[in-house]
């Protein structure tokens, strides 16, 4: 159960936004109390409780209080309600306080409510006494928070402190009372099925106990904030709060309350100036599951981290940006106005501004980008109410940003449409002159203040001129009269549509252009209007997310169909059909796209669309393969082959555009994927469209296409070396020549980077091939590449080539390992060791090795069982790039595998590191995250869904293995909690295969610890 008071910010100024939150809380409190009241009066008697609810709902609080005073005079009222009159009065005072208009009046009502609850608690044996005591503590917190709002004076701070301390005492009493009751229940064997009420009571006692304990610590922490110097004057209170929070965090981490305690622990440590300890607590909190009750705390914890880092000298802005922006990128619609989210945006903006002021070793573009990012965040939050607003406005003012709306120029009313049209054209011409002058001024590329002022002045004049032209035209359009010249009207409409399009008012431009097309069918101006509408709708499609553009697509289809039907012989109108095909392809509506293409007449345009479709189908087949949908991937692959074959067959005469070469290259890749290297090579060598023969004539300057071609040609040749009836020596010679072409194509530092990128792509392509190949084909591929790579490695010193060889050998070595094997042997081990040796040769040639290649070295070390070497390499990678997720996963895996081979004495520590990370970095953050943090940072991100569930699985696995090696049943039982917690939030656990893994592990743990072996509960039926 979460409490609203666990969300208070650290600084005293944060009290100004507590008004909204305490009101929300009291509303929840009132609902809670109303829902747990006595039963209705007996039939035929006074319907007392219902009447009370209606009076309070209508705002008749005085009448409700009078009614309660006279309740014993009415016959038939339930005795339990009469016994709880003081509690009902408290409820009435609370609701009156919520409705009060002033803080003074509100506090008076809350004081009366507190007094009424105290009167009620004089009868400590009443069944509702525990409920009343909990509400009393919460109300005391509410009163204190109310007093601390809006710059309180010393007297109010003192009164708030007393209320906080009273709340702490109340919660302490609840804790001790419930501790006794829970201990009494501890020896009882409560069967939930046989005695559900008692089981439910125990669950409620536990929840109330944890909530009271959390609030007891929170009340002390907040009481300390009422001092001018909390760390000094409130130290005793803060130390007591730390004791409460530490106990919760250590012993109840499996509960939401325990997780929240970690956040409050960090906030308390920060108040005491214990920044290193606070840093650890905040990071630990952020490693908790990304569950809804903990979301707001994530913003608070990340803000606190940013504040600690930025308080350093010099400010440590980079981790603040990475952490803060990373969380802001995942913000949900209902979180955008949360005070904690707004505060985080302010803190991240300050981090960006700190970066923009750091001129030591940074590029000017990076400095400007940081300043722009900070400014944008401040603009987003400056107008939103909250504690952040004042500081946001000041920071923007310091940057020279004035958000006061500019006064728009005024246009004179024209006499008629003709005058409006003439005036607008004059203004349009003036705007064109200003635009040209502005372009010339910008070309001077001066960096002084005067030049900047001249540019800004011209930009404003241009914007004002365009606005006046549009406004004049808009007014003129309202003056159309019956009998006006139709030609002038159409010209005016077209001109108006163009003006709107020019200033990016695409929706308006589409409406005007569409109207012109439909009211003037068959005319030149009608076609022009329709084309403006078409272009405007295309622009809008770029701006609007794909899942929200259904209406726009329908509009575009409507105008496109109209243009092609009305102007069937016009090539510009026919282009609308091409737009519709591209839209269908963009939405993966292949059948619709094929239907549209089939309706086109035979010819070059149709063939070009068939080639386009084929290439897109190839791309989709890759996506389907990555999503493990092999059946769909195979179908898309066959469809791609058909479309590409038709499209390439439609090429008549000499090929003059590189588009045809790209289509042929993709067709060769399709054949390679299907295992037909003979057809792949024949396509590459085709006399009409073969890119090998035509590349130098048609695309001599296209390095990207050349690189892709040579990589595909090389892969094809190597695969052909394993086919029967071929000449391996001749093919090896051709492969060597292609390698030379690759190196000649990319020279210099930039060329080396691009060559490295191509090699990485080749290694990735080979990995995909190996993953989908059958056993016989896989063996042939491994053997062919092994021979080829060995020969190349012995004859080259080219760094990019050596890097590719390292990566490819690692891919081959891993592919050669049986699925059940985690440590390489035989041929796989030989390949991986060769990769390590090749890396040593690479290091002898250059010290600048990309992280991706270092990562492959670390994988090679891990796969052959050299775990320390693997982790040493990964540590260096992660010091340079902490957010390299693949490396973080690899490091956690290495620790987990290493633990399995270490002696019992050292294994538990390795398992713990696999879980919680290790190797402190320069900011005292752990360089290696561990499975816990990996799961936290990937949670809720669809892109990393598979990694998230895999990390959650390994959390449970590592915990189980750790407990088993340590012979500690309590640790193994935590593995059960690890699984059931994530299953409670995500019942499907990432899909059937992953769920089966979780289920098998859960059964194994249950069996090991002696629990009934039940596994996961069945999934609920759909719907």
UniProtKB/TrEMBL annotation:
InterPro entries: TPR-like_helical_dom_sf
Keyword Coiled coil: yes
Coiled coil: 434-461
Keywords: Coiled coil, Signal
Signal peptide coordinates: 1-41
Protein name per UniProt: Tetratricopeptide repeat protein
